[in-house]
Amino acid sequence: MPTPAPPTDSARWPVLLVPVLAHLPLPLLYLLSDLLFLVSYHLFRYQRRLVADNLARALPERSPQERAKLAAKAYRNALQVLFETIAALRLPRERLLERVTVDNPVELERHLAAGRSVLVAAAHHGNWEWLQLACAARFDHPLDALYKPLGHPGLDGLLARLRGRFGTRLVAVGEALKMLLERRSAPRIMAMVADQGPRPDEDKVWYPFLGRDTAFFAGLEKIARLTDAPLLFAHMQRLSRGRYAVHFETLCEWPREVPEGEVMARYVRAVEAQVRAAPQDWLWVYKRWKYARGLYD
After folding, report:
1. Band of pLDDT at residue 297, cut at 50, 70 and 90
2. Mean pLDDT of 97-106
3. Mean pLDDT over residues 147-158, rounded?
4. What is the mean pLDDT of the chain?
5. How many whole angstroms separate alpha carbon 181 and alpha carbon 176?
6. Can you give the pLDDT at residue 4?
7. pLDDT at residue 231 is higher than 70
8. What's the mean pLDDT in 46-71?
9. Which of 89, 188, 192, 267 is the S-S candidate for 142 at Cβ 3.0 to 4.6 Å?
10. Residue 112: pLDDT over 50
């Protein structure tokens, strides 16, 4: 097993700063978020071209003026999610459940009541960290969250502390199949955010998404087929600053009964519909389309 690389200064400061900021009240964290937005977006223009290019490719039917407004909203919302996530290190369970409501919990609970585990897939839309924490705090069944380690012990430890606050058990993607099979005897919730892009050397599948061929991790469909667990999509809607509503949609009752590739296709279509309905709440501030199809297949 390789020895982890020593912490770098750029990776060390969040580990030290985030727990300190988490003691601040949420309104003050929002103020810091707004100040950072003014500095990074308007003064330094950090990643503005990337956000604008992503929106232009994904939403060509929108006018340049509309896309410019969306870019600013998306950037500001992304920073708010960052500071909301910091607050989640200490946010009480009751306040979290007030801020993240589930309008149809029975859609998830009916599968669990039938003795079946469920696979819940979400996207980088709204606040996905609050979504996982709210589900862990809201539902009585065990929750396993699949994640990809960052490779930095300090940052990975910080995220583990955050994501495990209400009993969530984290499962690294490399160990997911083994661990989920070991734990399948009792009904449980398996959660993952599956809209990020794989590296060129990682296993991938391609689907049309927001106007272009897009690579996705192949793991969601593999896990769904192996466990034959119902696949639910967690729609997350921003109601106002720091308040969200979640709606569960069953995409597939029995994954093994649908054609190969259809499980993932349904997920991709659900994510695209959510993004098109509220593009300002998706994470545009990163390079989602890093390479074209055919270069690394």
Report:
1. low
2. 97
3. 83
4. 92
5. 8
6. 42
7. yes
8. 96
9. 188
10. yes
CB atoms within 10 A of CB 195: 26
- What is the spatial distance between Cα 123 and Cα 251, in angstroms, rounded to a whole number? 14
263-268: long-range contacts (C-beta < 8 A, 24 or more apart)? 263/220, 263/221, 263/224, 263/225, 263/231, 264/205, 264/207, 264/216, 264/218, 264/220, 264/221, 265/207, 266/231, 266/233, 267/121, 267/194, 267/220, 267/231, 267/233, 268/207, 268/208, 268/209, 268/214, 268/216
pLDDT band, residue 256 (cuts 50/70/90): very high
Among 114, 103, 171, 166, CA closest to 140: 166
What does residue 74 show for φ and ψ, rounded to 5 degrees? -65, -40
Domain boundaries along the sequence of the chain: 11-281
Model pTM score: 0.92
State the pLDDT confidence band at 292, using cuts at 50, 70 and 90.
confident
Q: Which two tokens stand for residue 177?
A: 């199949």
Q: What is the DSSP string of the chain?
A: -PPPPPPPHHHHHHHHHHHHHTTS-HHHHHHHHHHHHIIIIIIS-TTHHHHHHHHHHH-TTS-HHHHHHHHHHHHHHHHHHHHHHHHTTT--HHHHHHHEEES-THHHHHHHHTT--EEEEE-SBS-HHHHHHHHHHH-SS-EEEEE---S-HHHHHHHHHHHTTTS-EEEEGGGHHHHHHHTTTS--EEEEE--SPPPTTS-EEEEEETTEEEEEESHHHHHHHHHTPPEEEEEEEEEETTEEEEEEEEEES-GGGSPTTHHHHHHHHHHHHHHHH-GGGB--SS----S-TTS--
Mean of the pLDDT values across residues 102-125? 96
Question: In one letter, which amino acid is 96?
Answer: L
